[in-house]
C-alpha cells in the first residue's frame, strides 16, 4: 500500500479538491505573500494547483514536493513554476527564505512537528500554515474502523472515480490514520481498478498548538478561521507566523 500521492491519489488530486467545493486558499496565500520581498518556498506544492496561479501573479515562489508524480503534473501544467523534488526534512535552503508557505494540512503529515517548526524557524522569519481539525472523526459523525463513501468524481475519459475512507483516531495522542481507497469504474459501473493508500496525520488542540509555537519561537501575527467562511466550529485554521 502506498503512503503518499502516487497513482490515482496523485492523478485525481485536483479533481477531488474541486469536488469538495471548499474555498480556495490561493487568496489567503496571495495576501500573505504581498509584502514578502525575495524568494519564498512552498512546501508540499503538489500538482501546482495553488503554486501555478501564485507564480502567474508574479510572486517569487518556488515549490518543494516529495512525490515525483505530483512534481511531473506540476511541471506539465505550470512549466513556469519552479519545483524541486525532495522532502522538507532533507531540505536546506541556500539563504534564508523571505517566507515559507505550507497550506492544505501538509504540515500535519510531518511525524515530528516540533523539530520541523524549529527547522522552519532557521530557514525563514515568516511562515504561513494551514491546519485542519478532525471534528467529524472525533464526534463520531464519521464511523471509525469502517469504510465509508467520501467523494465521487467524473473523469474526463468517461469513467468515474470513487474515494472511500476508513480512519482510526487517537484523541489523546492527537493522531489520525486515514486509509483511502480509490476506485475507477467504467460507464456501466464495473470496477476497472482500485488502489489503497494510508496517511498518518497529527492534529493539535488550540492550547497544544499555541504551546508548540511558543516553544519553537513562533508568534501568531494573524489567524483566519475556515479560510474566511463563517462557522461555529473551526475546521480549518490558517496562521501567519513571525519568528521571534
Ligand atoms: C494535501 S497535499 C497538498 C498539495 C498542494 N499543497 C495543494 O494544496 O494542492 C500534500 C502534498 O505535500 C506533499 N508532501 C507531504 N509531505 C512532504 C514533505 N515532507 N516534503 C515535501 N512534500 C511533502 C505530498 O506529496 C502532497 O503532494
Structural class based on helices, strands and sheet pairing: alpha/beta
Numbering strands along the chain, what is their spatial order in the largest sheet? 3-2-1-4-5-11-10
Distance from N terminus to C terminus (CA atoms, Å) equals 41 Å
Q: Which CATH class of the largest domain applies here? A: Alpha Beta
Poorly predicted segments: none
CATH architecture of the largest domain: 3-Layer(aba) Sandwich
Q: Name the hetero compounds present.
A: S-adenosylmethionine
How many domains? The number is: 2
So how many helices? 8
Biggest sheet, open or closed, and with what strands and sense?
A: 7 strands, mixed
Round the mean pLDDT to the nearest integer and report it: 95
Number of strands: 11
The CATH topology annotation of the largest domain reads as Rossmann fold
The CATH superfamily name of the largest domain is: Vaccinia Virus protein VP39
| Amount of beta strand | 25-35%
The Rg value, from CA coordinates, equals: 18 Å
Helicity, as a percent range: 25-40%
Order of helices and strands: HHHEHEHEEHEHEEEEHEE
Shape: globular
Amino acid at each position: 500500500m502506498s503512503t503518499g500521492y502516487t497513482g490515482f491519489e496523485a492523478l485525481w488530486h485536483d479533481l477531488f479538491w474541486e469536488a469538495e467545493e471548499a474555498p480556495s486558499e490561493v487568496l489567503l496565500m496571495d495576501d500573505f505573500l504581498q509584502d514578502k520581498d525575495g524568494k519564498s518556498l512552498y512546501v508540499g506544492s503538489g500538482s501546482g494547483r495553488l503554486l501555478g496561479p501564485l507564480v502567474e501573479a508574479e510572486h517569487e515562489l518556488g515549490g518543494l514536493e516529495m512525490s515525483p508524480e505530483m512534481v511531473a503534473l506540476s511541471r506539465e501544467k505550470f512549466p513556469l513554476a519552479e519545483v524541486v523534488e525532495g522532502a522538507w526534512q532533507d531540505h536546506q535552503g541556500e539563504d534564508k527564505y523571505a517566507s515559507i508557505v505550507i497550506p492544505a494540512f501538509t504540515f500535519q503529515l510531518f511525524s515530528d512537528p516540533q523539530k520541523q517548526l524549529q527547522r522552519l524557524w532557521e530557514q525563514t522569519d515568516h511562515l504561513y500554515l494551514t491546519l485542519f481539525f478532525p471534528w467529524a472523526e472525533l464526534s463520531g459523525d464519521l464511523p471509525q474502523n469502517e469504510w465509508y463513501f467520501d467523494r465521487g468524481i467524473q473523469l474526463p475519459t468517461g469513467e468515474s472515480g470513487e474515494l472511500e475512507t476508513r480512519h482510526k483516531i487517537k484523541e489523546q495522542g492527537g493522531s489520525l490514520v486515514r486509509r483511502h481507497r480509490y476506485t475507477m469504474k467504467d460507464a456501466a459501473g464495473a470496477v476497472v481498478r482500485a488502489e489503497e493508500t494510508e496517511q498518518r496525520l497529527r492534529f493539535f488542540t488550540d492550547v497544544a498548538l499555541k504551546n508548540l509555537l511558543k516553544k519553537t519561537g513562533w508568534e501568531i501575527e494573524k489567524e483566519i478561521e475556515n479560510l474566511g467562511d463563517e462557522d461555529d466550529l473551526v475546521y480549518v485554521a490558517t496562521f501567519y507566523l513571525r519568528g521571534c
